[in-house]
Amino acid sequence: MYKFFLRPLLFLLDAETAHHVTFFAIRLLSKLGITSLFRKICVVEDPRLEREVFGLRFKNPVGLAAGFDKDAKLYNELSDFGFGFVEIGTLTPKPQPGNPKKRLFRLKEDKAIINRMGFNNSGVFDAVERLKKEHRVLIGGNIGKNKVTPNEEAAKDYLICFDALFEHVDYFVVNVSSPNTPGLRELQEKEPLMELLKIMKRENKKYAAKFKTAEKPILLKIAPDLSEEQLMDIIYIVKATQLDGVIATNTTIERKGLKSHLTLAEEKGGLSGKPLAQRSTEVIRFLAEKSNKAFPIIGVGGIHSPEDALEKLDAGADLVQLYTGFIYEGPSLVKKINKSILERA
């Protein structure tokens, strides 16, 4: 139904407009009580799907990546589509509008999306108010810095978000890999990244003691465009700081081999979807093999089929996330992946 009826209608709209229409529709259906029907159709429940990763128990290994529910508006409703976890954000301390529109582009021939959203969000404190309601699903909090914050003060922004979200999310993701905030990827360099993560770990211990609870898992989201030398640095940093895991990968600035119209393909921003599949899997495999599987990995990038998801799990991912594949293939993709995992169990 989605691919043959709903998707063609949504694809008649501008990509960002279609996103807002989709959110409006999901919210309306929830108020009418119809999303409970989605749970019956989409959710696959089986103990063999459960995963314990960085101290958390996931009902299944398929999550929704950050960027879809930036402001924590529909995390419970989105879980009705069968996701085992939902990652909100990227959130910043202060609200920011993001980059000028038009900033989201579909590359239909490539089953891809280019975005240069620029961390558009209503601010971490606005999201916290919505996160105070009961959660039906594990929530990840993806955090970043405001565009106007210089890199030498970036840690302050990450700490503000961490402090605000500590009681309301199950794990954190430090996003230093988006290509759409000027200078952000410079924080992936060895020395600034090591310093930022050490600060985050110290804050984690402090807040765990304050609230008499366990420390929250902290993950690092990395770009697919890192060299092997940089990836080896990532492995060293994760081990040295005792970070809880890595998300591989964010969007790419590469444009090789695209079929879509040249003008469209050359739009600035991060590319996600099928063209990213091979590279993100290569990064997952490299990290898993070179680290001797020393830390958990969440695999994301170009998952449009159960086979794509299984490939990432076989490469060394412990969990996977969808974003562009969810948009192109629809909610049935989550169920298909979980069923494929069960077939191999």
From TrEMBL:
Q: Which cofactor does it need?
A: FMN
* Alphabetical list of InterPro entries matching this protein: Aldolase_TIM, DHO_dehydrogenase, Dihydroorotate_DH_1_2, Dihydroorotate_DH_2, Dihydroorotate_DH_cat, Dihydroorotate_DH_CS
Q: What's an example of a GO molecular-function annotation for this chain?
A: dihydroorotate dehydrogenase (quinone) activity
Catalytic residue positions: 178 (nucleophile)
The cellular location(s) given in this protein's UniProt record come to: Cell membrane; Membrane
Q: Offer one Pfam family short name for this entry.
A: DHO_dh
Q: Where does FMN bind?
A: 66-70, 90, 142, 175, 221, 249, 273, 302, 323-324
Enzyme class, broadest EC rank: oxidoreductase
Q: Mind listing the UniProt keywords for this protein, alphabetically?
A: Cell membrane, Flavoprotein, FMN, Membrane, Oxidoreductase, Pyrimidine biosynthesis
Where does the protein principally reside? membrane
Supply the EC number(s): 1.3.5.2
Cofactor binding description: Binds 1 FMN per subunit.
Which pathway does the protein contribute to? Pyrimidine metabolism; UMP biosynthesis via de novo pathway; orotate from (S)-dihydroorotate (quinone route): step 1/1
| Residues annotated as binding substrate | 70, 115-119, 175, 180, 250-251
Q: How does it sit in the membrane?
A: Peripheral membrane protein
Give the record's subunit note: Monomer.
PANTHER family referenced in this protein's UniProt entry, alphabetically: DIHYDROOROTATE DEHYDROGENASE (QUINONE), MITOCHONDRIAL, DIHYDROOROTATE DEHYDROGENASE (QUINONE), MITOCHONDRIAL-RELATED
What does the sequence similarity comment in the record state about its family?
Belongs to the dihydroorotate dehydrogenase family. Type 2 subfamily.
What does this chain do?
A: Catalyzes the conversion of dihydroorotate to orotate with quinone as electron acceptor.
Name of the molecule in the record: Dihydroorotate dehydrogenase (quinone)
The species this protein was found in: Flagellimonas lutaonensis
